[in-house]
Amino acid sequence: MANLGVKFEATTEETENQGGSYEPLPHMYAELWATAMDLDDTKDKRGTQAAINFEVTAPEEWKGKSFKEWWTIDHADGSANNSYWKFGKPQLSRFGRAVGVKIGPDTDTDDLTFKTFVAEVNYQPERPDGKGGTYKAKNQIGRFFYTDDAAKEPVPELGVIEDKPKPANDNRAPAANDNSKPAAAAKKTPW
């Protein structure tokens, strides 16, 4: 066991809020930074996974909100069969470029933390897991924006991205310039 190294006593006031009140961020462009990055073994013990805590630094109304991502950054099965590795390795490279760090064998996790960058934060709603349960709603970085000389697009304005809802059943009449052929009229029978 590890001793905390300080005199510590919990109070009733501190424990009133039980925690667990995580609410995902909306789909947005945000300035973020990584506040913590831990490297652990993957579940199958054949690779390395980066557990990264991202925190919003701007826009102001979301400042301090955070979410966590897990990226498999190295795996013994570095083939097309390992979809986690195919996602995590490029994400870490993009993250490094976004914070101005060229990641190599000597890069320390401290080199990547507390450096701001802009990204599109995606929102994934709660959804079935295919096993009778559900995956909880979560956030994940969809796209990084770069500020180096090779950047291909400008950094967007920070804020919530207004997603256009998709209608479940669109009952609108066709447009006036609809050039499709009308449905064939049913033939009337003479009797």
Helix and strand topology:
Layout: H1 12-15, E1 28-41, E2 47-58, E3 66-75, H2 83-98, E4 117-124, E5 127-128, E6 134-135, E7 138-145, E8 159-160
Kindly describe this structure:
Residues 170-191 have a biased composition (Low complexity). This is DUF669 domain-containing protein. It comes from Aquamicrobium soli. This protein has 191 residues and is mainly beta. Helix content is 10%, strand content 30%. It has two helices and eight strands. The strands form two sheets. Strands 1, 2, 3, 4, 7 and 8 form a six-stranded antiparallel β-sheet that branches. The longest helix is centred in the middle third of the chain and has 16 residues, at 83-98. It is globular and about 40 Å long.
Q: What does this entry show, briefly?
A:
Residues 159-169 have a biased composition (Basic and acidic residues). The chain has 191 residues and is mainly beta. The protein is 10% helix and 30% strand.
